[in-house]
Amino acid sequence: MKKIFFLTIALLGSINCTAQKKLIEKLFSSDTTRHNSFFPVPLIGYTQEAGFEFGAVGIYSFYLDKTDSTIRASQIYGVAFTSTKGVSQISSKADIWTKGNKWHQLYEARFSNIPFNFYGLGSNTSKADEDLVVQTRWRVGAEIEKQFTKSYYPGVGFEFESVNFKDDEPGGIFDLENQANLIDKDGGRYVFLKITQLLDTRNSNTYTTKGFYGRFRYAYAPDFFGGNNFKGNLFTTDLRYFKSVNKKLVLGNQLFYEAVTSKKDIPFYMLRQMGNDQIMRGYYLGRYRDKNYMALQAELRYKIINRFGMAAFGGVGSVYNRGFLPQQNFKPSYGLGARIFFDLEKSLALRVDYAWGEKPMGEKRISGFYISLGEAF
């Protein structure tokens, strides 16, 4: 692909000597007291499409009630960057737990103006068809869940999204695809009304060593905007299971499934995409896209010492057009990673992963490098 990507964590170059000393002391300390923490990370990157990118990412982790020994850690995650070619993104996510874990709240707000490579539809796209498209996206959403039993949280939510596309390389595959295949490829809007179900027996929501997590979402988009704008349903299932092999070694498993349905044709912007820094690592997001998406992954996490750990992961996934289960074209994903824990009490980590995927015929093996905050799942 034309996209070349790297991300540099410029900790020492962005803070003064006193702050550097405090950060180093924090990284090598054994403090596990209950406290709030903020971890900012300057970001520098480069893509051929965007030019040089610069900005910051950060995570603020806190307790709404420090006197409650059972309360889970709440987190606010934010990222903001711009580039020499006018690319920009600013987004924030919040995962809030109230006293006694009685209420669970999720919030998201995002604006992005980002180029991406389009390769066509389905699970057999070719690198030779790569076409640069610019996407502008606005999104806001919220989900609120109430504890019904100790581990069961039913809830409701909403999401609004407006997205627009512009082909930056006229004459490419994005232009040539018939409207019958790419419905409303200029973009559109929708509002989702959601019903959520959460079953959560994890011993921690930041670094789980045992327990089960199951989230089910049903989202319905009414015909608020008319035309080719999406009207239909989105089903999402996210199942995770964790088991401690011993005091230092943890096995995690995840099954992820998404499906979009409608009595009308599915707009281009609603198709599911495989690959990111959490699920099916190694794949360029959007290299493969279709109406349904399923992935299964497992990860072994080993804490060498309190501050440092390693991980090995692998999985399979596929996008497909029909049916509940994919019948073919499963893609592999596997890789290795390192973890630097900057908050021992909450086990919050800086995550560095390198992943490999399939080797399409006539192409180099697909791969990806990631630097993120928090575990993949």
User: What's the CATH architecture name?
Assistant: Beta Barrel
Topology as a string of helices (H) and strands (E): EHHEEEEEEEHEEEEEEEEEEE
Estimate what percentage of residues fall within beta strands: over 45%
Low-confidence stretches: 1-29
The level of helicity is under 10%
Largest sheet: 17 strands, antiparallel
Number of individual domains:
1
At CATH level 3, the topology is Porin
CATH class: Mainly Beta
User: Which structural category fits the helices and strands?
Assistant: mainly beta
Number of helices: 3
Radius of gyration: 21 Å
CA-based shape = globular
Let me know the CATH homologous superfamily: membrane protein fhac: a member of the omp85/tpsb transporter family
Report mean pLDDT, rounded to a whole number.
86
What is the number of beta strands?
A: 19
Distance between the termini: 27 Å
Protein name: BamA/TamA family outer membrane protein
Domain Bacterial surface antigen (D15): 97-377
InterPro entries: Bac_surfAg_D15 (IPR000184)
Subcellular location: Membrane
Structure description:
This protein has a 17-stranded antiparallel beta sheet. 5% of the residues lie in helices and 55% in strands. It is mostly beta strands and 377 residues long. It contains 3 helices and 19 strands. It has a single domain, classed as Porin (Beta Barrel), CATH 2.40.160.50. It has helices at residues 11-14, 17-27, 173-176; strands at 6-9, 37-47, 51-62, 74-83, 88-97, 103-118, 131-146, 152-167, 187-200, 211-221, 232-244, 249-261, 272-273, 289-290, 292-305, 308-320, 331-343, 348-356, 367-373. Residues 97-377 form the Bacterial surface antigen (D15) domain. This is BamA/TamA family outer membrane protein. Pfam families: Omp85.
